[in-house]
Amino acid sequence: MAKKKLVVLTGAGISAESGLKTFRDSDGLWEGYDISEVATATAWRKNPELVLEFYNMRRKNVQEAKPNAAHYGLAFLQKDFDVHIVTQNIDDLHERAGSENVLHLHGEILKMRSEKNEDLVYSIEGEIKIGDKADDGAQLRPHIVWFEEAVPMIESAVDIVKQADIFLIVGTSLVVYPAAGLINYAPWPIPKFIVDKQIPYTSSLYNLSVIEKPASEGIGEVQQLLKKFV
Question: From CA 25, how far away is CA 38, in angstroms rounded?
């Protein structure tokens, strides 16, 4: 018998427990930086040195972080379900925990690309500096979808969500679009779960169970609830 397709949408809340700060803190800053100065297409044109410095630090943070119980819990669900993770996170903690099907909506911090050709993508472990060039001669930039830029993977994500037998949302405020709109593509009758320490507003989602706990605790509870669907 085929495994049921479990689609999981994850956000910054799942990685926060691994020590990676979210940019939606109360002061509106991300690691002390104004988002508009480091995470927008305008910022890149205005001050690429600052943007590179910021993401070089974020990359180091990610490399030093470790997956937590929530990341491992989602990977464990692959034993009983066909799990597909759509993440807003730019870290690789899902992959390091063992999840095999991960779509990164907003890019990946451990990759870089040509600023002119978004198809020229390379792996990176160290830093990107001004003067580092892609094969087309253009400056290399983080392989990140910044504010003011289109989200090229959103259509693929919509296709995945439409095919879900079960839909799970973990650690996202559901305020960043178009990612937040993915919940509207989940088939109406299927079971849906939200895990977050502060449950976001979800209007009138049908067949919804909410677990108001940090991701690392809540995923354990979800594992128990999902047993009846195996």
Answer: 16
Start-to-end Cα distance in the chain: 10
Given the residues 71, 84, 106, 143, select the one marked as catalytic. 106
pLDDT in single tens digits along all 230 residues of the chain: 789 999 999 999 999 999 997 665 555 556 678 888 999 999 999 999 999 999 999 999 999 999 999 999 999 999 999 999 999 999 999 999 999 999 999 999 999 999 999 999 999 989 999 999 999 999 999 999 999 999 999 999 999 999 999 999 999 888 778 888 999 999 999 999 999 988 877 666 789 899 999 999 999 999 999 999 98
Query: Between the CA of residue 99 and those of 118, 153, 222, what are the distances in Å?
Result: 25, 18, 17
Half-sphere exposure of 159 (CA within 13 A, CB side): 5
Closest CA relative to residue 209, chosen from 197, 225, 188: 225
Which helix (H) or strand (E) element contains residue 195?
strand 192-195
Report the C-alpha gap between 52 and 63 in whole angstroms. Answer: 16
Answer yes or no: 106 catalytic: yes
Residues in the chain: 230
Residue in this structure with the two tokens 């990759």, named with its chain if needed: 111
* Burial class of residue 166, CB neighbours in 10 A (0-12, 13-18, 19+): buried
What is the Cα–Cα distance from 177 to 154, expressed in whole angstroms? 10
